[in-house]
Amino acid sequence: MAKHWAEPAVTALRANGQRVADLDTSSTPGFTGGKREGKELLAERATVLSDLQEKLFAHGRTGGTRSVLLVLQGMDTAGKGGIVRHVIGSVDPQGVDHASFGVPTPEELQHDFLWRIRKRLPAHGQIGVFDRSHYEDVLVVRVHELVPQREWEPRYDLINEFEREVSENGTMIIKVAMFVSLEEQKRRLRERLERPDKYWKFNPSDISERAYWPEYQKAYETLLDRTNTDYAPWYVLPADNKWYSRLAVTELLIDALTGLNLDWPPADFDVAEQLRRLDES
Ligand code: ADP
């Protein structure tokens, strides 16, 4: 087990029917160290992640069909962007396919809700990152009744079917739901309003959404109950401590990539012969 972990992130964070409203968002499940240890360890583990990602990329380049999909969900300020910058940012960008999903365009709205998602699934050998995802269609859509219940209700089953198909096609899916407390969100929003370098991240609707916190918690609880499958597991991430979220997601990715059991592709040329040619050149 990695240093300072009493229990691996994959088991400590796996959704297990817990109530979202009861989650201690400042906790650091499984981790025995503090911020300093967490930051030091992140630097070490980023190297491990990067090596594993290179193996996945090499696998894709040589005809392999596996890929990884990291789905990030969370309320505004939960730290999805930080995961992308600090975790995904530590691997080779050519092996990463980042997709963010905002309010659907008129064209997207003409299709079923999975249409735009399918188009962004990672290619062989890639780590795909969904910054928001098809789960918005049972979160914001449900909370604000953007479509009637008879339309969003079947989506949980449709999502499970979709994810099963994606997983059977060789994509390892990891879903992370990030939670900050209402107070921590207020602090982070205040920072966006007090720092000119953060204004660009601020959206006045983020404040209006705070009034819907209980409805969002309920919607999260339902999706965690109904879409937490063996082939596409949910991890519930307390996200008040950014250093912890980043470290934990790094561990989840390391675990997933290790689970793919990839080897470096063998040479498709005669190594000795090429060395001899090189010497003679
Ligand atoms: P962020 O807030 O993550 O920086 P954007 O401002 O681009 O990103 O857009 C995110 C917004 O889009 C969120 O408010 C989110 O709820 C909304 N959104 C995402 N998917 C959908 C959807 N399917 N239907 C309606 N709104 C959506």
Automatic annotation (TrEMBL):
InterPro entries: P-loop_NTPase (IPR027417), Polyphosphate_phosphotransfera (IPR016898), PPK2-rel_1 (IPR022300), PPK2-related (IPR022488). Keywords: Kinase, Transferase. The keyword Kinase applies. Residues 35-258 form the Polyphosphate kinase-2-related domain. One of its GO terms (biological process) is polyphosphate metabolic process. Coiled coil: none annotated. One of its GO terms (molecular function) is polyphosphate kinase activity. This is PPK2 family polyphosphate--nucleotide phosphotransferase. It comes from Nocardia mangyaensis.
